[in-house]
Every structure is written in C-alpha cells, then in structure tokens.
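Narrative of accomplishments. A recurring question from our advisory board has been how the design workflow behaves on a single, concrete structure rather than in aggregate. To address it, we present the structure tokens for one chain from the evaluation set, followed by the sequence designed for it. No filtering or post-editing was applied between the two.
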C-alpha cells in the first residue's frame, strides 16, 4: 500500500491517494490500528455549512438547506449532532459468524469497536465486551437481525466526549479557560483601580473603553468554560456510557446505503427502546421546494436553536437518501451546522468579538467538500467489497485510502 495509489470506486470513479498521504497512513495502520481482520470501514470527514452572513453567527440552518436546494435535493433530514467520540462498531450474531467472516479465533470476541482512525476505542476491554453483548441482545430483541443477517456494522457516537477526550479537556480547554479567567480578572481589577483615580478627558474615555472590552472578554471566557462542561461526566461503568448509532452500515445480508435515513433513525430508536445504553437521534425533516418549504425552514431553525440553546453541539443535515445525486453529480452525504457556543471550542473564546467573526467567515470549503466525497465513496466501496466477500486486501485498500486522505492539509476547524 506504499506509494501513490488510484482506487476505483463505484460511487465516484477513481480516487487518488498521494504518496505523502499514503506514507503517513501506513505508519498509523501498521502501529496503532485494530486487527485488520475486523477493520472493514472508516467513516468520512464532513464539511460544515457555508458561512452565514447573519449578525453574530458563523453557521445557520438556512444556509445548510439552501446548499442542498441549490444542488437539486428535494427533501432533507436534520439530525441532532451528538457530542461524543465517533465509533464504528462490528458485532456478530454468533461466534461462527465471527469466524466465517472475520477470521476470529475460538477465544476472540465476536465484535470490536474502533475510532475514526482505526484504533481500539475502549481502553477497558470489559466495557467493550459488555457493550457488544448488550448490542447483540438489542438487535435480537428488536428483530433487526432479520434485515442485517449474521453480523452488523454501525456508525455512531459514544458519549460522553470525556470518555476519550478527558486529557484533551484537562490540558487544552480547561487550562485555557482557567488561564483566561484569571488573567482577565486581574486586568479588570487593574482597570477599575485606574478608574478610581478619577481621571478625566481622553484618558478616562480610554479607560472606559478598555473596561468595556475587558468585560466582553470575561464573558467570552466564561462562555468558553461553560461550552465543554455538558459533554463531560465520570464513567465508572457502562451505565455511564451511551452509544448513539445514527446509521446501520452493513451486515451479511448486504450494505444498507439503499435504505433512507428514516429507516436508520427508526432502527436506532428501536435499539434505544430495547436498552437504555443506546440513545436515539432526535431529528426533523424538511421539504426544500413547494408551498411548505418556508415553514419547514422556520421549523428547522427553531429546532436547531432549541438544541443549541440547551447546550447541544448542533445538527447534521442530510439528503433523505444516503446516496443522492443532484444537478452536479454526487451531493454531500451531510453537512454540519454547529451552534454558536459550541463553536467557541473550535475557534476560541473570542471568535464572536468585533473583527474575528468577519475574518472567520472568509473560509473556503471546496477542498473540504471534495475530501468528504472521496472518503465517503471509499467507505461505501470498502463495505461493498467486504459484503461481496472480495479478498481482504481489496477491502483494506479502501479503508487505508480513507485514513490516508485524512492527512490532507485541510483546516481542522472546518
């Protein structure tokens, strides 16, 4: 898999993986990835909504709907964006299925959970084993095995975010928030002391302006610290964990991309009803043309405001059908529309202050969108090849391609 590669996909034709990207991915795959017998899929990246021109906002639902409307998409589903860690889960109905399809040994687990970069998700094997057992039981209780066959691959988020990102939260977000709070409090005290001296004229006006700016920055720092707290809680057992599956990707019966998103979301709701370990994905649908389109846009916007106002990350807008072609070919499988408070974690506490927001609006999405489509095509190709029982190296060619493209130099904040 070394060197430049060209991978043929049914969905998007030839996808090229540059040699430099391939070298970085090969290092990760060889040193850190889970057993290649299980690694049949990696999820694609996702582009954000086009930048909003509305005051005080960088992203807004209307721009997501307009993006798909211009592409010729008739209807979309807007899904709650879970703030956790992306996870791919494979679970087999029986040990025999694990041996037949994944080459598992008699003492190996009949499933696996890994991150979006192919690394093992759980540091504690007992949590993984319990999750897989409960997922297997829930698939049985809901009758979903009838649609999937002898094994299933699910794409979703595992919550809380702090389960995988505790160190990142502590050393990056919490440290930044604490430092900003302490520094700005000291600055505010210094300004107040200077104002107490009773200066007049331009000096007093300058201090008043500085006091107002410092107060605004203090509010931004406090909002930054509040932004990550809803996504962090202690995990002592699997009862403190939630798996939010938003798409059933494939099973021995074949891939599930031909099924509309409504089917996937209904399946997730059935799993959630069977076991509180699983979390359903709240969602609303919207027509993009016709007499009800304007009312649907208002309804989606109000729903997004409710989600983000309650501390949610935002939403993902998708065409009603997972694989959709529009006026200019394959359309984005999804665009994310994040809330203004969550975006503080991405762009910094003061991104909404004067000058910062206008600069951030000048972002180019073409490269990110192209990357998302290429990775999406490779992911589908990998599952198509695996369910057709093609040689494993043909499957890994696509999985490797997704990981390689992830090293493309695209702004990670997008």
């Amino acid at each position: 898999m070394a060197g430049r590669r060209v991978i043929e996909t049914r969905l998007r034709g030839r996808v090229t993986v540059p040699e430099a990207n391939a070298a970085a991915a090969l290092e990760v795959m060889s040193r850190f990835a889970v057993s290649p017998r299980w690694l049949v899929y990696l999820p694609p990246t996702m582009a954000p909504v086009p930048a909003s021109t509305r005051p005080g906002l960088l992203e807004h639902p209307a721009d997501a709907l307009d993006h798909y409307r211009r592409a010729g998409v008739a209807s979309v589903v807007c899904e709650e964006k879970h703030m956790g860690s992306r996870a791919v889960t494979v679970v087999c109905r029986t040990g025999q299925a694990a041996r037949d399809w994944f080459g598992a040994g008699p003492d190996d687990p009949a499933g696996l959970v890994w991150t979006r970069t192919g690394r093992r998700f759980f540091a504690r094997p007992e949590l993984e084993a319990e999750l897989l057992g409960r997922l297997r039981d829930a698939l049985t209780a809901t009758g979903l095995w009838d649609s999937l066959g002898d094994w299933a691959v699910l794409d979703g988020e595992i919550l809380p975010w702090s389960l995988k990102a505790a160190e990142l939260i502590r050393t990056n977000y919490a440290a930044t928030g604490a430092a900003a709070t302490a520094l700005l409090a000291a600055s505010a005290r210094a300004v107040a002391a200077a104002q107490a001296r009773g200066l007049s004229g331009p000096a007093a006006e300058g201090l008043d302006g500085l006091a107002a700016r410092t107060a605004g920055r203090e509010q931004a720092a406090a909002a930054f610290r509040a932004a990550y707290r809803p996504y962090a809680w202690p995990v002592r057992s699997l009862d403190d964990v939630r798996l939010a599956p938003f798409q059933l990707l494939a099973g021995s019966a074949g891939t599930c991309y031909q099924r509309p998103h409504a089917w996937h979301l209904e399946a997730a709701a059935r799993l959630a009803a069977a076991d509180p370990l699983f979390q359903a994905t709240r969602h609303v649908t919207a027509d993009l043309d016709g007499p009800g389109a304007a009312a649907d846009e208002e309804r989606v916007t109000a729903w997004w405001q409710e989600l983000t106002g309650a501390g949610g990350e935002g939403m993902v807008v998708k065409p009603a059908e997972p694989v959709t072609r529009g006026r200019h070919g394959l359309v984005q499988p999804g665009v994310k529309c994040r809330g203004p408070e969550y975006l503080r974690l991405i762009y910094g506490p003061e991104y909404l202050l004067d000058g910062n927001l206008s600069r951030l609006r000048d972002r180019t999405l073409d490269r990110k969108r192209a990357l998302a489509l290429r990775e999406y095509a490779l992911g589908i190709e990998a599952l198509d090849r695996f369910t057709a029982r093609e040689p494993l190296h043909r499957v890994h060619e696509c999985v490797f391609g997704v990981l390689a493209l992830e090293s493309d130099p695209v702004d990670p904040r997008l």
